[in-house]
Specification:
The chain has 649 residues and is of the alpha/beta class. 31% of the residues lie in helices and 22% in strands. The chain has 20 helices and 30 strands. Strand 1 and strand 2 form a beta hairpin. The radius of gyration is 24 Å and the shape is globular. Bound molecules: adenosine-5'-triphosphate (ATP) and magnesium ion.
Length: 649
């Protein structure tokens, strides 16, 4: 594996790219010097029923906060994703679907998708759903998930998608928060060969006496498995569709009308119901999709995220469909039934752009490269990463093994709250540095501040904030505007606080160092978790690592590392010493882990992010007060980590 640290833009790529370096600089400059003019022009990339004349109205003052974009325009998100393509690309595939079992394949053209959305939109209306109502969607990764979302958008209902892996309690709390009258689900889902009892989970959620608003459960038949049925409340998707007219004009929505609510991943605490509005979001999601992936007409684009996450909203449904792309949607997980699945899917469908998460890359790495021996990969052009900092070692593996040392990687930093990508390379413009999300997208003004809120100039490290709004920004926490103001605008006056820390290097590139809550302070020196973890992951025996601080008498905080080894590597005391030395030589004595616990698994959110807050508690020996674990993918991991903890006092 190479240790190269700079990957200059490929000249051939740049020649055919949407944007090269010179254009990036010019457009970025214009976007911050003259945001009104810049967005007046780029707002035209989507179709408006009534064009806007007002561009933006923004104040980040926590006593008088407002964020509005294109706010006298009207439009419809589903019209933008469907109707406007019918003439030019009605017969082009909009969604190519591959089942968990690869023998199941399905293609929907733009006109077929349009018909289904219209019919389902009418069905929703028939069930009493009105403009402004919140509809809960708890679906597997099937085209009907996108149909349900777009049908809501078509009639002006607000969707709230819940990831299909969540438990009845998590569903219940989100339904209560959104006061949904209608829930859309399926009998069962299939993921990695396992059956997920979706309808049974909804039934259990609705048994909760605090859930009192739901009148209707619409159920898609996916597997035909046994389920309970409540007459009068439950109704089959196909029965509704059979009698529904496929003609449904799209509702004219104001730019600032809500499009959806989506709860954050819950890495740091209780999930927040992030509210996104229509106009700015559509402009921003489609524009970032086009420029960040250098998307070209006719390309096949595969995003491995579930629709239940923001990535699944902005870069599987709204952004790519607004751009008329062909999406590949996969029902299962890309490393099942074996790690070779990822390469097989790319080759089978001739995928041009793939967008995935570091957790998957690390999982594939740990299994060894042999699974990619037969992988061709010649259709690929751009690779993307999102969700966590990507360790340089994982970046290089992605670049070498999946990208065959040819294709740019866009490491995209953003949040549920931001609606779209804020910091990322543009593949034809940006020289790449593994582990750095590099530079801001057009209109985005990141900055670093110290803990007092003072701006840090030039190279340095601090809290990552945004000084001005961008069209895709969230507008509120659903039902709790005070929490919105408090969470994002009170820490540093007049700025949006991301909760993340970052370093800016001499080229102005940003390196996300991790969440600010996770920063470790060793003998007065601040260390980002990402740096120490990346050093550990760079060791050939290490698959994954999570690092936290714990109370240490002399240093203030000591470094506690949880390490998952590659398949087949033995957990020995000698290796522990080797790893300590390794980190010492990679970063410095200060970063040497005090304690290393072998961790066969790490606690992760359902979207695959490491949840360090649990690890912090275990390291501090405070195992009695772990807090909300409802967003954990596998709660049993915690018990085994507690069992084997090292810092018993
Ligand atoms: P919660 O806000 O509920 O604690 P969460 O922050 O994990 O959960 P998301 O909105 O899904 O919820 O994730 C956004 C966060 O993910 C970012 O704030 C950042 O910490 C991390 N992240 C996303 N992409 C990247 C990236 N490319 N590099 C580094 N970190 C990233
Ligand atoms: Mg967050």
């Amino acid at each position: 594996m190479s240790t190269q640290s700079l990957y200059p833009v490929n000249a051939d790529f740049a020649a055919g790219a949407k944007v090269n370096e010179e254009q990036y600089r010019r457009m970025y400059q214009e976007s911050v010097v003259n945001p009104e003019g810049f967005w007046r022009e780029h707002g035209q990339r989507i179709s408006w029923f009534k064009d806007y004349t007002k561009i933006r109205k923004v104040s980040f003052d926590d006593h008088n906060l407002y964020i509005k974009w294109f706010y006298d325009g009207t439009l419809n998100a589903s019209y933008n994703c469907l109707d406007r393509h019918l003439e030019s690309r009605g017969d082009q595939p909009a969604i190519i679907w591959e089942g968990d079992d690869a023998s199941e394949q399905l293609t929907l053209t733009y006109s077929q998708l349009h018909q289904q959305v219209c019919a389902f939109a009418n069905a929703l209306r028939g069930q009493g759903v009105q403009r402004g109502d919140v509809v809960t969607i708890y679906m597997p990764m099937v085209p009907e998930a996108a149909v349900a979302m777009l049908a809501c958008a078509r009639i002006g209902a607000i969707h709230s998608v819940i990831f299909g892996g969540f438990s009845p309690d998590s569903i219940a709390s989100r339904i209560i928060d959104g006061k949904s009258k209608v829930v859309i689900t399926a009998d069962q889902g299939v993921r990695g060969g396992r059956i997920i009892p979706l309808k049974a989970n909804v039934d259990a959620a609705l048994d909760n006496p605090d859930v009192s608003t739901v009148e209707r459960v619409i159920c898609l038949k996916r597997t035909g498995g046994d389920i309970q049925w409540q007459q009068g409340r439950d109704i089959w998707w196909h029965e509704l569709m059979a009698v529904s007219s496929p003609y449904c004009p799209a509702e004219e929505m104001g730019a600032e009308d809500p499009l959806f609510i989506l709860y954050t991943s819950g890495s740091t605490g209780t999930p927040k119901g992030v509210l996104h509005s229509t106009g700015g979001y559509m402009v921003y999601a489609s524009m970032t999709h086009e420029y960040v992936f250098d998307y070209r007409d006719g390309e096949i684009y595969w995003c491995t995220a579930d629709v239940g996450w923001i990535t699944g909203h902005s870069y599987m449904v709204y952004g790519p469909l607004a751009n008329g792309a062909t999406l590949l949607m996969h029902e299962g997980v890309p490393n099942w039934p074996s790690p070779a699945r990822m390469g097989e899917i790319i080759d089978r469908h001739k995928v041009n752009i793939v967008y995935t998460a570091p957790t998957l890359i690390r999982a594939l790495m740990a299994e060894g490269e042999a699974h990619f021996d037969g992988f061709d990969g010649s259709s690929l052009r751009v690779l993307g990463s999102v969700g966590e900092p990507i360790n340089p070692e994982a970046w290089r593996w992605y670049y070498d093994v999946i990208g065959k040392e040819q294709h740019p990687i866009v490491d995209t930093w953003w949040q549920t709250e931001t609606g779209g990508i804020l910091i990322s390379p543009l593949p034809g413009a940006t020289d790449l540095k593994p582990g750095s999300a590099t530079r801001p997208f057009f209109g985005v003004q990141p900055a670093l501040v110290d803990n007092m809120g003072n701006l840090i100039d030039g190279p340095g490290e601090g809290n990552l904030v945004l000084l001005d709004s961008w069209p895709g920004q969230m507008r509120s926490v659903y039902g709790d505007h005070d929490r919105f103001v408090l969470t994002y605008f009170k820490t540093f006056r007049g700025m949006y606080f991301t909760g993340d820390g970052a370093r800016r290097d001499e080229d102005g590139y940003y390196w996300i160092t991790g969440r600010v809550d996770d920063v470790i302070n060793v003998s007065g020196h601040r260390l980002g978790t990402a740096e120490v973890e990346s050093a550990l992951v760079a060791h050939p025996d290490v698959a994954e690592a999570a690092v936290v601080g714990y109370p240490h008498d002399i240093k203030g905080q000591g470094i506690y590392a949880y390490v998952t080894l590659n398949k087949g590597t033995e957990e020995t005391e000698a290796l522990r010493q080797t790893l300590r030395q390794w980190v010492r030589s990679e970063i410095g004595a200060l970063a040497t882990p005090d304690l290393i616990q072998w961790a066969p698994g790490l606690p992760k959110t359902r979207s695959g992010k490491i949840m360090r807050r649990f690890l912090r508690k275990i390291a501090a020996n405070e195992v009695g007060s772990l807090g909300d674990s409802s967003t954990l993918a596998d709660p049993t991991v915690i018990d085994s980590l507690i069992e084997a903890r090292l810092n018993r006092t």
